[in-house]
Structures are given as structure tokens and as C-alpha cells.
Write a structure and sequence with these properties.
The structure is a homodimer.
Chain A lengths: L17 H19 L6 H8 L3 H7 L3 H21 L9 H14 L1 H13 L7 H15 L9 H19 L6 H21 L18
Helix pairs in contact in A: 1-2, 1-4, 1-6, 2-3, 4-5, 4-6, 5-6, 5-8, 5-9, 6-8, 7-8, 8-9
Chain A binds a DNA duplex through helix 2 and helix 3.
DNA sequence: ATACTGTTCAACACTGATGTATAAAATTGT
DNA sequence: ACAATTTTATACATCAGTGTTGAACAGTAT
């Protein structure tokens, strides 16, 4: 039985370009990892969808595990650049970071999802560049006088990240037009800012809130 | 080469109990699906960890795909019961639902995660029982006079669900003591209620909020 | 021209999983 | 005591993936 790998997607010959090949592989890898999780990733499938020979994939990444690692690292880098890449002085503005994050995740929902799965399964999360940046940004905000007192920074960080990353997945932004994606990002940031400014409850109409569930 | 399945976990003989066996398989299946995703689930591994023969697993679930489906259905049911199972009249209280949800997810983080992965990949989400209940609860709240005007119900629902489900995963509640888990649930609901009541910003100290990022 | 690098192709040994089948044991209900 | 059901134990055919190797081919640079 021949080792086919039948070159479905790119019959047309193309210029040699190792970096591009590498990126093409990584991109497909990220997409598949986002869909089925890192454990389900197969080099064969990646090669096929990327339109390269399986041998080529093994040439760039020695083993399946290394491909997984390379993909997650690559994604984390891209994400950090996109969210914190702009001018240093902007970093303290939470609404800018939120906007960047929402924008990035809507544009590249697979990357956000890969990052999320990775960070959830990491032993030491401080190893991750993006998380360190994000966390310190949140800590700075919580400690500032712009924030209410008593905010639980970790809950806050997890809440913002999970919802920003999964909102585009929920909305299937991948199969939307640029305009629709714009609207998705906009809806998200608008509602988050609204929430952060006013909360949900009209307190005057919802006064009996001391009655909290017993198990809390 | 022998088909081993070497019975690692349960050398001790036990009473026959088909329902229990079925549940044991489903439980392990859910745990593995939460860790590695449904695509990576293997019947062999499930059988091994559940301490039953592979044949038994195939006796209860004809194929791998059916096991995956049975697991997700089972999880969705359990979740609905846990969150909306109490008295009907309580349903309108958002803080009760939030408390139930937080509690359930901290106690059974795998179940929440399985449900989340499933719902994200479903074509028609209204097929899912839990989602229908949750969404209608949110819609009712948003339409009530207890809520601020202009809340985006879908963003709100996705935000609450994703963070409630992934917070315990983040905190690794699975390997915590009951007291620690209690504290995790408590931290989450406390912060969420605080957020829902007051928001994040002290508006008087953060007045220049009209300066939103351009791409929003 | 030549050497180098990236890429393709085919073959191979190996592992681990799926799904099927069948006989035998163990437990339960009647 | 008997029948039905559940569970175990094996075996087998099949498939898909991994990781390796060696030879060939195609652009690129010197």
C-alpha cells in the first residue's frame, strides 16, 4: 500500500520558502488543535490539509509532540504581540487591552482557543508570556484608584479571558464576513464596558440581595 | 500478541450491577473527554481506567461515537438537574442559578467542561436542554425591571457560562479538599455578584472613558 | 558548474486502536 | 435448578497513525 498523501489542496507548483512552509503547517496545526484538542492532532492530517508532504512536516518538526509544542508557543507569541504590541504607554488602559483582545480573538478564534487550552493544562502558568503580561495589567488596574475596592483580580482575569476567547467561538466568527466580525467584537466590548461601568442590577429595584443561597 | 486490558484498578471482585457499570464507564469517559477532547477518546483507555473489560464497554456502547454521544447527553442531563432541579419558583432568581452553577462546576469540573465543548461544537444549540433553560432564564432577567436597560443577553449568557465552567478548571478544583472547593465557589459567586451590582470602575475617578479604541 | 538546502516520494517496522466474534465464567431472577 | 444477563478472556482482521530511512528532485547561492 503506497504512502499516498495525495496533495489535495495545492496541485499548483509553488516557490520554495521554508518559513512559509513552516507557518502553513503551524497554521493548520493550530486550526486542528482548536477543533479537536492537542491530543487528537495528527501529523498526517496536518500535512494533508497544509498541502505539504508528510515528510516535509517531519522535516520541520521532528515529532508530533514537538509540533504541538511549537504550535502553542507560536500562538502565544502572536497573541502577546497583537494584544500588548502597541505603544508601551497604552498598557495601563484596560479598555484598550480589552479591545485588542476582543479584536484578536474574533479575527483568529483558533489561536485564542489553542492558547486557552494550553494555559488551562499548564503546570506553572507564569511560564506563559501572555498570561504574565495580562495578569500584571489586571493587578495594576485593580490596585489603581480607578477600580472599586475588593475586586478579586484572579476571578476577574479568568472571567475576561475565557469570555473574550470563547465569544468568537460561540459566534463562529471564523465563517463570518469582516463586517460581521467587526460587529461581533463591538458587541462584546460594548457589553463588557457597560458591565464594568454599571453592573447588571438596578439596585433600587433589586434590594433584597442579602438573601444569598445557603451554600455560599 | 495478546489483547491484554490488564485490569489495573479493580482486582477486587464486585457485585454485578449493570447500571453502576454503565455509570462508571460514563464517568471515566467524561473525565477523559474533559481532559483531551471527544476526538481523542479511546474506548480501550476508558475501559482500562474504569476497571472493566473492553468487551464490557462495547457491550454497553456499541461504538466509540455512541459512547461519546451517550456521555455528553448524560452530562447535560446531570447539569440541568443540578442547576435547575430545585423548586420551580426559585428559577427567576439569577443569584440562585449562579450559585447552583458555580457549585456544580466546582464539584464536577469535567462535566462542565464536557458540556462546554459540546455546546460550542453543536450546530443547533437549542437542541441542548441546559442551554434552553439557561438562555430563557437570562432573557427573563434581562427583560425584568431588576436589570439595567440595554444588556446584551447573549454576551451576558456566554460570559457567565464560560467563566463559571472554566474557573474551577483554572483552579484545579478536582484536586482540592471540600473546604477549598467551597471557598472557590464562594470566591467566584462573590466576585460575580459584586461585579453585577457595582461594575468595576469608580466612575468619578475614571471619567475619560469616551476615548475608546478606534476599531470598536 | 557545484554544493547546499528544502522538498518530495515510496517503503518499512511498529504501535495502538477499532470493531467483531466466540466461548466461558459469574451473578442474578424465577 | 434453570435461564437470562452481565462480565471476562481471547483471538483476529483491519485501519490509521508514528517515526525512520534512502534516494531523488528542485530551486538558490557561491
Amino acid at each position: 500500500m503506497a504512502d499516498s498523501t495525495p496533495q489535495l489542496t495545492r496541485p499548483r507548483k509553488r516557490r520554495r520558502d521554508p518559513e512559509r512552509t513552516r507557518e502553513a503547517i503551524l497554521e493548520v496545526s493550530a486550526k486542528l488543535m482548536a477543533k479537536d484538542g492537542p491530543e487528537a492532532l495528527s501529523v498526517s492530517q496536518v500535512a494533508q490539509l497544509a498541502g505539504v508532504n508528510r515528510g516535509t512536516a517531519y522535516h520541520h518538526f521532528q515529532t508530533r509532540e514537538q509540533l504541538v509544542k511549537a504550535t502553542t508557543d507560536w500562538v502565544s507569541e502572536k497573541m502577546t504581540d497583537a494584544v500588548f504590541g502597541d505603544a508601551e504607554q497604552q498598557r495601563n488602559r484596560p479598555e484598550v487591552v480589552l479591545g485588542n483582545l476582543a479584536h484578536f480573538c474574533v479575527e483568529y478564534p483558533e489561536f485564542g482557543r489553542v492558547w486557552l487550552v494550553r494555559i488551562l493544562s499548564m503546570e506553572d502558568r507564569n511560564q506563559d508570556h501572555f498570561w504574565r503580561q495580562f495578569k500584571s495589567q489586571v493587578d495594576r488596574f485593580v490596585a489603581s484608584e480607578a477600580a472599586h475596592e475588593g475586586i478579586d483580580a484572579e476571578v476577574h482575569a479568568v472571567r475576561v479571558l475565557t469570555s473574550a476567547i470563547l465569544w468568537p467561538v460561540w459566534m463562529r466568527s471564523r465563517s463570518a464576513t469582516p463586517e460581521e466580525r467587526e460587529e461581533m467584537a463591538s458587541r462584546f466590548t460594548r457589553e463588557m464596558m457597560r458591565l464594568h461601568l454599571d453592573g447588571l442590577f438596578r439596585k433600587e429595584k433589586y434590594s433584597d440581595l442579602e438573601m444569598m443561597p445557603t451554600h455560599l
